[in-house]
Write a structure and sequence with these properties.
two-stranded antiparallel ribbon, two-stranded antiparallel sheet, elongated
Length: 278
């Protein structure tokens, strides 16, 4: 087997195994590729034109027949900043002068030009890596992945905690964080029928001692979970998990005796709330 035969067999296999560096799938990718090519072309043209202009200007600025002076070696700091010794500033003085104030024809400091060119190089690398090849992750991609991980962890936590709560095990919770969560859920789902302060609207007043379907923790938990279809109250077990129902239940029972303005007349049977909250 000759060397050329080996290369002909090896090249297609390697090309098939490797992923192409630049893969254009969408019109946006094509647009970015065109922009990149244009940017590189413009940079090349500007660099060549600048260098050519510099050589021409330098040549024209010298008198005819003049011998090019041998420049003294510059220090690193002078090369970096482009500073000219004070003794040579007269060579940079421009023709115009106002009130004794002259202007020097100082070039742009090299450090600034190096920084400018580095930003162009960084932009090209960023464009290729983050917008064309997909090697890097954009902020929206990182955000989406982090939110997905957080949501999964939250679901696992709720499944672990909420799975142990039901009508037989539910208790009244007094922790501030749990009551705040219950208040948020109540404001989101319950105020349309029971009012902003649970004073009662279409639904009954939830702040007094009279209850239509029981006023202890387990009864309120059951009412929220299963609803009261004949009275128009839907079952919330599909929207709220058991932990959330417990939080809403606890928040409602924490409003006992608050006597909000415009409270609805009592409905149902009176319940001893001292016993109900135990």
């Amino acid at each position: 087997m000759t060397l050329s035969t080996i290369l002909l067999q090896a090249v297609p296999a390697a090309a098939a195994a490797e992923k192409p560096l630049l893969e254009i799938k969408t019109p946006e990718d094509l647009f970015l590729a065109v922009i990149l090519c244009c940017l590189v072309a413009v940079c090349a043209v500007v660099a060549v034109a600048t260098w050519s202009l510099y050589l021409n200007v330098k040549k024209l600025s010298q008198p005819a027949g003049a011998v090019e002076a041998v420049e003294e070696p510059k220090t690193f700091w002078q090369s970096l900043t482009g500073l000219v010794p004070l003794a040579k500033e007269k060579d940079l003085k421009m023709d115009h002068e106002y009130d004794g104030i002259a202007e020097l024809d100082n070039p742009t400091p090299p450090w600034f030009m190096y920084l400018f060119y580095s930003t162009i190089a960084f932009a090209v690398v960023y464009l290729i890596g983050y917008h064309m090849t997909g090697t890097g992750k954009l902020q929206i991609q990182e955000y989406t992945e982090e939110v997905t991980v957080a949501e999964k962890a939250r679901e696992e936590y709720l499944a672990k905690v909420a799975g142990s709560i039901n009508e037989n095990t539910v208790t009244f919770v007094r922790e501030t964080a749990a009551l705040e969560s219950g208040k948020t859920l109540f404001n989101q789902y319950c105020t349309a029928c029971h009012g902003q302060n649970a004073e009662g609207k279409v639904g009954p007043n939830l702040t007094d001692e009279y209850w239509l379907h029981g006023g202890d923790v387990k009864a309120v938990f059951h009412t929220i979970t299963e609803g009261v279809p004949e009275k128009g109250m839907v079952a919330w077990k599909k929207q709220l998990n058991p932990l959330q129902v417990q939080q809403v239940t606890s928040y409602i029972l924490s409003l006992q005796g608050s006597k909000p303005v415009g409270a609805k007349e009592p409905q149902g049977e009176k319940v001893d709330m001292q016993l109900a909250l135990k």
